[in-house]
Specification:
Rossmann fold; Tumour Suppressor Smad4; six-stranded antiparallel sheet; 9 helices; 18 strands
């Protein structure tokens, strides 16, 4: 079948806002034109599905869930795109924001949880390109973190997200922020190494929801925006983060704001977790952040 005539595949994570999973599935099946719905059943399912669908020739694959599902779908699409020959058309990513956190959709200015509105934009056929990044061999589109914020992601269970929604991250943060944070070493070519306890990375302005944490960031400028929190314990980190959100990074001490296209993070012997697009990543230090060899096409009317 001609790719242009194929139904648009939608990969749905039924666990996203699980109490409403049946209603969400029903709503998706009622969309016009009707999507080709694929339901995940476990971890990494979305990645395998997306890679297979992209390899089969689908020009657009839609993630229906939160940022975690989006990142899984992104991995699959990008693995297939990485095998394309020069000049071959890449598979694009679409997003239906139905999960606990939907930061990437906020960055794209999608119409919130309006499923029909988002679907209309997806079917408009309008695409735009954004910068795409890698952490070692994994891809991310919106944000990343090393240290405390990734520990919060690590300790926020699926059951908690299902029951408490975004509040689940706050509950995990209470425990994590009371511990001694890891020591991180950030290396950027041409600069002296920098020590910190948290490194937050933005490809766009938003972090953790509708919060413009990276105020100078753009997902089309070829640069990542880094916030390096220097030598702070958990509660001090929280205070500085609050100051950045309220007043901007220029007013905050114990903080470096840097724009760069490549850097490396190493950790103390105890290690530190890494999150990509709000999803815990299976990565170990050193982690090299760098541009992907191609950009990402996204559906955004």
């Amino acid at each position: 079948m001609n790719a242009a005539l194929m139904p648009i595949p939608v990969i749905l994570n039924p666990a996203a806002r699980s109490t409403k999973a049946a209603a969400l599935e029903h709503a998706l099946r009622r969309l016009s034109p009707e999507p080709e719905l694929h339901l995940t059943t476990g971890p990494a399912d979305a990645t395998a599905m997306a890679e297979r669908l992209a390899t089969e020739g689908h020009e657009l694959i839609v993630s229906a869930g939160g940022d975690g599902t989006m990142n899984e779908v992104l991995q699959g699409i990008c693995r297939a795109n990485a095998r394309r020959k020069p000049g071959e058309k890449h598979t694009a990513l679409g997003v239906l924001p139905l999960g606990t956190m939907n930061v990437f959709s906020v960055e794209l200015k999608l119409p919130g949880r309006d499923i029909e509105g988002c679907w209309k934009e997806i079917n408009s056929g309008k695409l735009r390109e954004v910068d795409l990044w890698m952490a070692n061999d994994m891809y991310f589109a919106q944000l990343a973190g090393v240290g405390l914020d990734a520990q919060i992601v690590q300790e926020t269970s699926w059951e908690a997200k299902k029951k408490f929604g975004p509040l689940s991250y706050v509950m995990s943060a209470v425990n994590v922020l009371l511990r001694t944070p890891p020591t991180l070493n950030v290396k950027i070519e041409g600069k002296a190494p920098m020590l910190g306890t948290v490194v937050l990375v933005g490809n766009g302005k938003h972090y953790g929801g509708p919060f413009p944490l990276f105020r100078d960031a753009s997902n089309t400028d070829g640069k990542l925006d880094l916030l390096i929190f220097r030598g702070l314990g958990g509660m001090e980190f929280l205070q500085v983060l609050r100051g950045v959100l309220l007043d901007g990074y220029q007013e905050c001490e114990d903080l470096d704001y840097i724009q760069t296209s490549e850097f490396t993070v190493t950790t103390d012997p105890g290690g530190a977790p890494v999150e990509l697009d709000g999803e815990l990543a299976d990565l170990t230090a050193p982690v090299v952040f760098r541009p992907a060899p191609f950009r990402l096409s996204v559906s955004a009317g």
